[in-house]
Every structure is written in structure tokens, then in C-alpha cells.
Amino acid sequence: MSKRVLIVDDEENIRQMIRLTLEAAGYVVGEARSGMEVFTILGGTPSWDVILLDQKMPGMVGTDVLRRIKVLAPESRVIMVTAFAEVELAVEAMKLGATDFVRKPMTPEILRNAVAAAEVKAAEAIAPAAEKINQTKSRGAGTLTLNGFTILRASDMRVTLPHKRNEQCFIVRHPDGREQEVVVEISDEAFREVEQATHHIPPGKAFWTEQAERFLSDFIWNDGDVPGDGKITLRGVEPEELKKAAEKGQDL
Questions:
Q1: Considering the chain, what is the average pLDDT of its residues?
Q2: What are the distances in angstroms from CA 236 to CA 1, 34, 191?
Q3: In CATH terms, is domain 4-125 a member of 3.30.365.10?
Q4: Can you list the residues of the chain whose pLDDT is less than 50?
């Protein structure tokens, strides 16, 4: 049976592009132009496998709509869609129950990847209890999913990944379920920048983990993919992050 996808977006051209892309991939597609319209649809037919939900719509923003969707159709996987590159908003949406976060304008490949990844998560959700426990032990707890890619911290994994002092290691799960190690290298310039801001008091390890994860998230958010060679270099830290490091500096 074909999977059912509901598009919630006030822009007709966006809905049409998504519809054509997904119908070509074999999905059954429905449309809603607002939060109120999607509530009416879900009240009559709640069985949608995936819901693509725009964040910025007149009357009610996507995160508010999301709260209601999780009541009306709790089994549906919700993918948030936005034109604004705000990882913080993605984190908020994940806490509210979103499965993924996709940036406008999106390519057909990114769209298909996100929907495919949502299907994988739906399959995992209905796995037998023992199997799910084993998955959690071996695959870790997802921290953030962007454009169909889920970032897992190495510390969440059963196996510890080897790394150097200037490296942070992550596992990135691709939309097809394949997992890849990605290393974020902290450059000497970044270390010096933070040392100057903190008057040579090094921040805790958690600081660099957070900076590396943010940098990797931004890369996947902007590129819609992971680094080709599995490694990227963080060459600087945002001013507000430097301020936090100066305020909370502590010995390693």
C-alpha cells in the first residue's frame, strides 16, 4: 500500500512542487492551506504516515499546529519546513514531537530523503519492545534530525570512537539508515580565539562538544548532506558563544 503524505503550507506553488515530487515517488498526497484546515482533515482522516508542516503560516505558526497534530494524529511523523535557518527552532520542534526539520527551498532529493527517514523512524517505533531496546543500545539516542540526517553523539554510542584532543566525533545516520562517522576538527585558531576571550582559562569539554555539534548541524542544514570525506574543520566561534565561554570558563 502506498504511503500517505499530507502537505500543510499556505503557498500553492510550494504545495504543488512537493506534491509532484512525492507523487512521482509513489506517495499518495493530500494538501492543507492552514492549521485550521489540517485539523479538519485529521478529524476525519487521521491516518497520514507523514505530515509536512510549514512553520510560517498566517493565523497559526507551525509549532503551534504541531502541538495539536500530536493529539489528533499521534502516530503521524511530522516534518517541519521553514525558510529560516534556526537550529534552535529545530530543537524546539523536536521537543514537541517533530521527526525532522527541512529548509526551504528544498531540492527534490532532500524532500525524498526527509520523507524516507520519517518512514524509517515510523518502522522503528512499531518494532517489538526487545528489538527497540537493542536498537537504543547499539544506535544511540538521536539528538537532532535535519534534512533527513540524524546526528548522534559518540558518547551515546555503545562503542567509544577514538579521537584526538582537537576532535569531536559524531555518528550521522543517513535517510536510508546507514550510519557514518563524522569528525569535527577544532582548529588552532578557534582554540586561540576562546583562550583570548576567557583569559586563557579553558572551557569545559562540554563547550567544545556543543560548538562542534552546532557547526555540524549548520553544515547539514545548509548543504543537505554530510561532508564528503567525513571531516570538517571549525575555524571560529560565534561572538555570543565566546561570551558564554568567558562567563562559564572552567578547568578541563
A1: 82
A2: 49, 40, 8
A3: no
A4: 126-142, 250-252
